[in-house]
Amino acid sequence: MGDYTDGLTLDEQIGQILAVGFPGTTPSQEVVDLLQDYHVGNIILFSRNIHDARQIGALTHSLQMLAQRSGQRFPLLIMADQENGIVHRLGPDATTFPGNMALGATYAEHLAREVAQATGEELNTLGINVNLAPVVDVSNNPANPVIGVRSFGEDPRQVACFAAAAVQGYHDARVICTLKHFPGHGDTATDSHLALPTIPYDMERLQTLELVSFKSGIAAGADCVMIAHIAFPAITGQDTLPATVSPVIVRELLRQQLGFDGVIISDCLEMNAVAEIIGVERAAVMALQAGIDLVLVSHRSDRQRAAFEAIRAAVKSGALARETITEAAERVMQLKARYLSWQTIPSPTMTETPIQVSSESHQRLSEEAYALSTTLIRNEDALLPLCLKPTERIVVISARRATMTKVEDKFYSDELLAAILRQHHSRVDILPVSSRAVDEGGAEILQATRDAGVIVMATVNAHLDRLQARLMRCLVQSGRRVIGIAARNPYDLLAFPQLRTCVATYEYTRPALVAAARVIFGEQEASGRLPVSIPGLYPSGYRWEG
Is 187 a catalytic site residue? Predict the structure, then answer.
């Protein structure tokens, strides 16, 4: 390999193959110690670290200056999960762009490239040089609680084309990108944040489905690939071995068979799929033995220090070859050398002028993409476009939702939907609904909505949530005029196939709901087409021809 690790001590090399997170909007003492004393060379940021553009610019700059003063040869890799859509880490100054399934619903792969480029430009402005995106998993299991709309769709050929387009967009912006979650997290019914999922299929199945998009992204020049915490017993021969620590998956499949020569990143080792089965410290060593280059420990400083110590002890005992550490550190530093230098680190402005992250062109791109993604799944009663008398009332049903995942850290109130609808019709009320009211048969709900001209309910993965599903069925069976907004997976119709009016937005974000309201009131056509099928009800929008 190259010469970037020449002269580095073992501790300095271990620091280059660890990525850590921390709490707060300024560098914590724990992360300062990790940078200075443990030579850690990579940082991951979450929404907990981000307030606004000025603050994040100052934070990333101060982290880089700490690393430079500690003698690191290259700037830090500073990474975030800016997938867009439901996984949106950046603050209020950044543009809200559609997530993957919304982009998939446009069937316009050029939008995936343009959105990736614009996202990369905004990340660069804030001093974030690595995006842990795009997700290139294939969404082929409606019961999947954690991927769903983070995927471009269910057709591996479409996902492959959009994956390549996104990689090209990030390259256009000079931002390092990451394909995830290898070798595929789409066909699971378990969230790896909570437990270890298993995919039972053999290599033939992976070659024809899960791996298609990864091959495409690698061919497009992806810099990094993230390994999933999923067991593949038909491939590894072990029932409870996460892919993250499997040499068969990492070295043989990704490195040798697929020919990927970039940086291989672990998913966070603090996720329960690893932490509760193997343990963070042991998993850090096993991941490196398997061929991982960059080990991610996102949250607790005690675990971060323990992982460092475990790696060092394994090298000194001979359980982990020093050459393995050197090779991994060399790949990470080669990646830094291609993209980063101390001369090009963004400096925060010292004036009162805020950092300009978004732009008019980015806002126009966002609006265009959301308009093209909004999907009218059903309009069987010709209720849309909605025509109401000024005296008629819209009631927005607001119920507790139990379907958010740990990867999400932004939450939205139904007040947002009501406010957007009021821009089109003045009489809009919200009805909070308790689980007790649903369990008692819904009579109280129906009484409270007896004079409503139309009822609107936004569902979030209702096909996985008993309360939302029962509530929608109650509304539909009442014979009232009901508009459903599938504000996450369109699979919700599996739970209430009798719903006759349904719009899919694929996410509960302001611009997605604004676009949906325009469709509901006839201000724009619904251009989107389902990029997934709804078993027993609908095929996907149309076959992908590429």
Answer: no
